[in-house]
Amino acid sequence: MYLIDTNIFLEILLNQDKKIICKKFLQKNLGLLYLTDFSLHSIGVILFRYKKVDIYQKFIRDITSKVGIISLPLRLYSNVGKVSMFHSRFPTLFPDRSRLHLEVLYFIVTLPLFPCRQENRLK
């Protein structure tokens, strides 16, 4: 099982440079892919920002039958701040910490194929 990073989907949806690599990875691993509800919302925020509502709606229709959507159970949110034993030396963002909880909870592997693209980040 693979927990897919938001940027893998954004690479495809925004027609970026690594679109083909991302598509091949997703196609090769159908049935093993998961996305967090947080990532799903983040993709929506970014696509709406770029006025690509129609692409988001199509994405939602396509994704629901091919990728599992998982959430961090409410009872575990209080532990998100304690996730990283390296927190004092390497502070992590909330999405990274909640993601780590999900990986442990669902025994999922995260494969970052490439670093987050700067233009996909909200300013």
Give an account of the 3D structure.
The protein is of the alpha/beta class and 123 residues long. The protein has a single domain (2-114), classed as Rossmann fold (3-Layer(aba) Sandwich). The protein has 5 helices and 4 strands, in the order E-H-H-E-H-H-E-H-E. The protein has helices at residues 6-13, 19-28, 37-49, 53-63, 94-106; strands spanning 2-3, 33-36, 68-70, 109-110. A 4-stranded parallel sheet has the order 3-2-1-4. Helix 1 (6-13) crosses helix 2 and helix 1 (6-13) runs parallel beside helix 3. It is globular and about 40 Å long. The protein starts with a strand and ends in a 13-residue tail after the last strand. The model is unreliable at 84-95 and 107-123 (pLDDT under 50).
